Amino acid sequence: MAKYVYFFSPTGADGDGKQKALLGGKGANLAEMCRIGLPVPPGFTVSTEVCTHFYANGRSYPEELQGQVREAIARLETELGKKFGSVDNPLLLSVRSGARDSMPGMMDTILNLGINDQAVEGIARSTGNARFAWDSYRRFIQMYGDVVMGVQTREGEHHEPFDAVMHELKGEVGVHEDINLTVEHLQELVKRFKALIKSRTGNEFPEDAWAQLWGSIGAVFGSWMNDRAMVYRRKYNIPHEWGTAVNVQAMVFGNTGETSGTGVAFTRDPANGQKVYYGEYLVNAQGEDVVAGIRTPNHISQMASDLPEPYAQLTEVFQKLEKHFKDVQDVEFTVEHGKLFMLQTRNGKRTGLAAINIAVDMVEEGLITEEDAIKRIPADDLSHVLAPIFDRTAEANARCIGKGLPAGPGAATGRIYFNAVDAVTAADRGEDVVLVRVETSPEDLRGMIVAKGILTSRGGVSSHAALVARQMGKICVCGATEVVIDYHHKTVTADDVTLKEGDYISINGTTGQIFAGQIATAPSEIIQVLVDKTLDPSASPLYAKWQKLMSWVDARRTLGVRTNSDDPEQVRRAIGFGAEGIGLTRTEHMFFEGDRIDAVREMILAETKEAREHALAKLLPYQREDFTGIFEALQGRPATIRLLDPPLHEFIGTMTPEQISALASTIGLTPERISDRIHQLHEANPMLGHRGCRLGIVYPEITKMQARAIFEAAADVKSRGIDVHPEVMVPLVGFKKELDLQVELIHDVAAEVQKSRGVEFAYLVGTMIEIPRAALTADEIAASAQFFSFGTNDLTQTTLGMSRDDSAGFLGAYQEADILAKNPFATIDQTGVGQLIKIAVEKGKAARPGIKLGICGEHGGDPESVKFCHRVGLNYVSCSPFRIPIARLAAAQAALEG
Amino acid sequence: MAKYVYFFSPTGADGDGKQKALLGGKGANLAEMCRIGLPVPPGFTVSTEVCTHFYANGRSYPEELQGQVREAIARLETELGKKFGSVDNPLLLSVRSGARDSMPGMMDTILNLGINDQAVEGIARSTGNARFAWDSYRRFIQMYGDVVMGVQTREGEHHEPFDAVMHELKGEVGVHEDINLTVEHLQELVKRFKALIKSRTGNEFPEDAWAQLWGSIGAVFGSWMNDRAMVYRRKYNIPHEWGTAVNVQAMVFGNTGETSGTGVAFTRDPANGQKVYYGEYLVNAQGEDVVAGIRTPNHISQMASDLPEPYAQLTEVFQKLEKHFKDVQDVEFTVEHGKLFMLQTRNGKRTGLAAINIAVDMVEEGLITEEDAIKRIPADDLSHVLAPIFDRTAEANARCIGKGLPAGPGAATGRIYFNAVDAVTAADRGEDVVLVRVETSPEDLRGMIVAKGILTSRGGVSSHAALVARQMGKICVCGATEVVIDYHHKTVTADDVTLKEGDYISINGTTGQIFAGQIATAPSEIIQVLVDKTLDPSASPLYAKWQKLMSWVDARRTLGVRTNSDDPEQVRRAIGFGAEGIGLTRTEHMFFEGDRIDAVREMILAETKEAREHALAKLLPYQREDFTGIFEALQGRPATIRLLDPPLHEFIGTMTPEQISALASTIGLTPERISDRIHQLHEANPMLGHRGCRLGIVYPEITKMQARAIFEAAADVKSRGIDVHPEVMVPLVGFKKELDLQVELIHDVAAEVQKSRGVEFAYLVGTMIEIPRAALTADEIAASAQFFSFGTNDLTQTTLGMSRDDSAGFLGAYQEADILAKNPFATIDQTGVGQLIKIAVEKGKAARPGIKLGICGEHGGDPESVKFCHRVGLNYVSCSPFRIPIARLAAAQAALEG
Q1: ipTM of the complex as predicted
Q2: Residues in B touching A777 (Cβ below 8 Å)
Q3: The whole model's pTM is what?
Q4: How does pLDDT run across B742-760, given as a tens digit for each residue?
Q5: Chain centre to alpha carbon of residue A861
Q6: Chain B nearest-CA residue for A829
Q7: How far apart are CA A464 and CA B212, in angstroms?
Q8: Which residues of A touch B649 (CB under 8 A)?
Q9: Taking Cα atoms as reference points, which of B195, B190, B98, B109 lies closest to residue B146?
């Protein structure tokens, strides 16, 4: 018989920590904590297989499930000496979701399940604490009404309906804090809550415990497909097929009085990685109270004086957990009458800064290996420590209007918006946005995604805002309690300064400071050491850790990392970041500089070969100078140089009538002829038009000029004692013969230049693989190409029949509809484009065993794509300078995975 | 030792007729004629392998060649009792090219080789015919000077230089016809020819026979790569690698007097296929005289009275040849002193009309099988008998200005141009061109390719013009001797009418008549019977043969043939041509008709889903009506209907400000909003933009409306007792999920319509495979697709990264540079695009064994592509109505090729 229910308790557990796919992260770790002897309230996990079954079978359960749940409940009753559904001694339960990867706040939780009108009296009697009993009951009704029965905020309502009822009652009885409500108040509240449910749904709140349980299980499974869960999974690429587990657990109560409480904590600081306990708790509170930000919680360290005994237990648990899980743990706990219970543990989400600090520290503590450190840092998160910080002087001179908790390090400046919709609209307009909220909830996710920074006035370092900011690497200041936010007037006021929607605000997520207006930024610490050399390495402990990590990375990776660059200064920066050469120089990027564009336009407008050669002769010294600078910057590293690629219309299509007139008189053509030529060169689909090597085939003199510029520069630099390795790349090849024709020209020029200058240098001639036909016929093409460089931007466009520029109109809809898991222009579409790359690699290697293989599309800086490149056997990736450390780390991870 | 030289003579032959690849067509058939006892002057063939070696080794010969040639010459000397290079009894030779496929007039020929200043006297003595000796000598010098030494017309010269010299001499001595030149005149001519050679080349004409021979062999091999040969091969897709053979043969002389002569002939009429001897000859003439059109030759039938004995021999040879080669033969012969010699035989090129008539006749004569008949007709040539003819009444009322030889049947009307350059320029402007020349030569080929018709005033039915017209299926009237053509003034005058360049002229290539002005055309005979039903089948012998041929074709082919059509009338025509259904209905073609475009624009400009649905509701009845008409016309045959495909901008991008204003007031939007929307929908690369199923994904209501229109029409027609088989096709799918989403909508609508109308009908839902990703993931997609239709237009664009619209700028250069053998938008690029098709077929069949596979790109009517489709296992092709018979024939040929 299939097993769907996994029991756990201090007396033993069916599952263990490795079974995250089956039991979800929460369920697996609850079992694991039981196994290592930590205090966990007993319970059971309904596996993710039930969720899969649920969605595959019209939201119904497997037959065996009911019996297995009854059996587990019976075992709980035996272990705890309570009875589910009993009036006098009821077993109360929590029901919580738990997916394979944690999805904080994304799905629903129900606490105190099993109470009804009779049981509440029984609990009051048996605990002697009527207030606790009624508080628990009203909480249960509220959660159940919301999550299971669907009583939620409607359009036009400003408050969650249960909150509104409570707010009204508090007004009537003159009470400010929930905690000051009396038993009678709570009884009245229960009555009103039930009435609300009835009026909103037409249904009665169920008094039967079993009905409550099944309703709750169904609601958790149902929440897996709710909108915010889907948005979250899309953002984090969690497959919808994974499903969630449901954890049903005996309740422990943090709301029984002053010796009770509840909290969340990290074993180290997840914002900066320091080895200090981090988190917060509330006395006499339950469940979501800490995270929801309704009461401002206390820092975890304060627990040592408030609840000394449980705090001692907790620090002991912390040490045990880190030792066992070998990672920072993010826990939830409840203290009931002075006794600690662990409700959850998981690996803590952390910022990139924290990830580096923690990983290197843990290696040094002997807790993990260097390989573990490499594997565990999400490569993309390295960008967190490369992002700009505020310029020191500018920050000192700025108007500081307040301070909050530093929840996401870095510097953010942007315009203020108060909700997700406005934030998204502004970001679409191209504005930098700082999202300002009293507190955030999963509904704000879309706004948080587009924001440069997040500022909240409520909620601590474990609040939703802090947690999401940490995970996304967003700059965040939270719990800035002195800041007054007025949603209605769309203003934020602090220290006598009032800022309106659209005004600039700046936040420092490293210090927690808030500033009015914009503040100029400066390069990050790492960049100041590595690239700008403006900071002494020994003055930066972060740099020391970075350096250690990168040395481990480079020792393991086999994939080379180059940069895409057209500029000597940029090349030097890239080398600072670890670039081993240039993977793509776009020669035409230099065409727009200064008065070169005139010569370029003259070349394009030439009506005879002679006139064209005349114009090209003007361009030659410019190009030679460009390449000279690049070769000097590279100091012997290889440079892949792509010949002219874009359609000629790009260089003349934007000319104004004035420019046309001016050029006409310079080059001796009539403005009409120039206009005619512009018209003639216009293309319906320039991406598929007369560009790439098609230019060099029709105008071989262009190829010759570019080859000459490259080789003359190479000869000059080489003759000054600097080694050079030009790799001339012919773009947009689809047919072997195209390449043959260009290769012959290039070799001829190379031979001529080497002879005339009396300098020999090594060089390669190869091609981009960027149209499907080239990949499909890579065996033929490899016979003439010394290297392939995959131009995955164009290859994606042609393989998917999708223009990058034009896909904005539907790509959003496509991601929402789950047609595409990721933007294929950011991450290689492995199923489609990847297949062509594999074909090309296989055929290319078969035809020319030593062929050099690289990628120069923008995918070269995307970790997932880098790993793909490693797996298919490329020699190197190439990306923009800032992505180089990311590519290096991803390459090392790929090597360790491989 | 490698054998490079193959001897042939009536005493035996080294080679035979099957060795065309090795010996060329001419050499192989010379050997074969020797083997079957026909009178052939002995000689030898230097194989095509030498040509390959020649080009692979810097134009040098294999070592063994010289010895083998000397040996063959020695054998010739022995057999004929003459001596090569001798003064008194010289062996004279012809040297001619001969490729695998005949390339008439494309390469060079040298006759009378072996004469020099001494030998000419010897020949005069031994033959007692000094005039013959000197005539032969001047001819040899002329040919050798032109072909080997390169004395050719220069820019600015109006005449070939040797002709100019001869013309001058004739003027000086007052002679009009070459034949009236005396021995003394000829001796003077020889002197002047040699002087011309010396002055033009700086070199002396070689007196040494061996030098003459090797020079000539080298010239023939060299001519393989000359410009006109390359153009010809490109046009007929003959690989450059094949190379040519060289045939060296003992001379026989048609220029020895009145009992000698030379001619060319066909065993049947190659213009219309009638079983009559066809051809022409000249008495006392040599070599190219007949073809060159300098003297007007006599019809072959006249030979019966002029040269009765040789004519009897010739008719006997004709019968022997047809029986042996089982095809129409195109022969060259020479009569020397009353004795017939065969110089060449080959299968005769013929028009499409002739091809049908001859093939069917030969089956009926028991000469060939039905399969032979099918294999032998070039599928494309069927179009010749489908091309329009002149409207009978219009032709009767037109001004007939002359008559020539009917050399290419059909009716052509166009503007007069007098040379290839002007013809090409005019054709590029979109004009219909009739090329008018005194006579044509290979230099005119480019002009002949673009011309609708060709008219010459000189040269008979074997002239270059007639021959090329026949091969290309061009409409041609040649040898219209009364017509006076003035190149200088660019006029043509006949029967007192003078027409200028650019004026209209009409020619009837079936009757030979020439008309001033344009004449309206009417459908061809076949179409009148098959489609228009305006002609009684029994009144058309051609139809009877057509019908027979097509019944053989249909009995053998396994590939279905459908049509691309959006219009009921067109569908009926296509069924007349044999269409078995519709392979592609482009629903949007109907969008531009009448006032529908307003509703379409309203739909596009709608700002809400409701507004869009409102506009779609207006379109629904139109679309339903369209499909009703199509289903009625199909009478139960299947119809593949493609959902909306083009980017929406296509429907609104061309609106004028007035149209915008008018539409704005109709649909209640401001003109500014409409202009904004037009701007917003503009795409950089619309081919890769928001189109195809991407529209249906973002606007599902469009798909729903179209599905509803299709299914409601189907229900209506079915309920009237006519069967329907709609096949709904989702365009531009690249991801399975795209298709899933659309398929679900379509099934929902189908179910709803069938239920509400109470009618059941069968239907399929499938997809186009038109982007590489779809082909690469065809296994996934097949799970949701009941059929695939390859959209090879788009698939070619994306696989080659080449826009059909924009490739005009370089495709010409690409074909000239041999990068592309054929236009990939006309004939499937089997190496690239074909590979994707194969992948998709394999994966599609693996995932869904019974999947229906077709092609709906324009390649479906191209014979080579049709054969490819058969080979890869498609079920059907689809093409425009006129191409259907061609596709049927190509499909049968593919089946026979296995």
Answers
A1: 0.84
A2: 831-832, 835
A3: 0.85
A4: 999 999 999 999 999 999 9
A5: 14
A6: B773
A7: 97
A8: none
A9: B109
